Amino acid sequence: MSDAVQSVTIVEVGPRDGFQSVGPFIPTPHKIALIGRLHAAGLRRMETTSFVSPSALPQMADAAEIVAATDRLAGLDAQVLVPTARHAERAFAAGATHLSAVLSVSERHNMGNVRRTPMESVADYAQMVAMMPAGAAMRLNLATAFDCPHVGRIGADAVLALLDPLVAATADVEIALCDTTGRADPAQVRALFAAARDRFPEVRGWAFHGHDTYGLGAANVLAAWDVGIRVFDASVAGLGGCPFAPGATGNVATEDLVWMFDHMGVASGIDLDRLVDAARAVAELPGAQIGGRVRDALAARARKAAA
C-alpha cells in the first residue's frame, strides 16, 4: 500500500487531558460547544471527559452531562477516562460505551494517582473488563511507559512485564503506551512499540499518547508510525501543560499532527482550517496552557497575505 492511500486515526484528548489542566471551571455548555466544533472539523474519536472524584478534579464534575451531550454527535466514538472500577461503574451508569482505563508502570506514580500498586491496579482493571456490557469497548492507557517524573527512564522490560497480566485479562483492547512526561525520544518509542507488538500479537490495537514538553511530540509520533502504529492521541492547541516542567507545553497539538500527516499524504479525515479555528477558540480559555506551532505559523502566513 502506498503512502498516498494510507490513513491515520487521531484521538482528540483536549476535552479531557487538556481541560483538566485548566484551573477555572469551564462552563459545561462551553465545553459541549467546543467538542461540537472539533466534531465539525472531522474528529470522530475523542476522549471527552473523565469519571474521577469531583473533589480531586472539579473540572470533570460534569462528566455525566458531557456523556449525554456527546452521545448526540453523529458518528462520534467518545471514550471516557476511568482510573478505577468504581469510577467505571459511574461511567457505565451515565451511558458511556467506551472506557479508557489508566494505570502507571511506575509504582510511585501509580501510588500518587490512585493509591494502589500497579499490580493492584491490574486486579482493578480485570474487574472493569468483567463488568463491561455487551457492545462496550475498552482502551487501556499505560502511563509512564517511557519515563516517570519520580524515577526517570522506564525500561522496556518493566513495561512488557506489566503488560503480561493486562493482556491476559483481555486482548480485545486498544493499548496506548503513554509518554507521560514528554521525555521519550524517537529511538525509545520505536523500540518499545516494536517489542510490545512482537510479544503481544493478539492485542486488538496499539496507540501512542505523546507530550511535547521537550519539542519531540511530532517526532515521537512519526517514530511510532514507522513501526506500524496508526492511532495517536493529541490535544487541540496543545492544551494540557506538564506539571513536572513548569512553563513547558503538554500534549502534542492536534493541528500539528494533522498538518504533518496531510503533507505526508496520509489521510486523517480532519479539516485543518476548521480545526485551527477551534484551536484558536480553545487557546482563549482563561487559564489555558497551550502549545503547538502550526496554528501560529498559519496565522503569520495569513497576516502576510493580507498585507
From TrEMBL:
<comment type="similarity">
    <text>Belongs to the HMG-CoA lyase family.</text>
</comment>
<keyword id="KW-0670">Pyruvate</keyword>
<dbReference type="GO" id="GO:0004419">
    <property type="term" value="F:hydroxymethylglutaryl-CoA lyase activity"/>
</dbReference>
<dbReference type="InterPro" id="IPR043594">
    <property type="entry name" value="HMGL"/>
</dbReference>
<keyword id="KW-0479">Metal-binding</keyword>
<dbReference type="GO" id="GO:0006552">
    <property type="term" value="P:L-leucine catabolic process"/>
</dbReference>
<dbReference type="GO" id="GO:0046872">
    <property type="term" value="F:metal ion binding"/>
</dbReference>
<protein>
    <submittedName>
        <fullName>Pyruvate carboxyltransferase</fullName>
    </submittedName>
</protein>
<dbReference type="InterPro" id="IPR000891">
    <property type="entry name" value="PYR_CT"/>
</dbReference>
<feature type="domain" description="Pyruvate carboxyltransferase">
    <location>
        <begin position="8"/>
        <end position="276"/>
    </location>
</feature>
<dbReference type="GO" id="GO:0046951">
    <property type="term" value="P:ketone body biosynthetic process"/>
</dbReference>
<dbReference type="InterPro" id="IPR013785">
    <property type="entry name" value="Aldolase_TIM"/>
</dbReference>
<keyword id="KW-0456">Lyase</keyword>
<dbReference type="Pfam" id="PF00682">
    <property type="entry name" value="HMGL-like"/>
</dbReference>
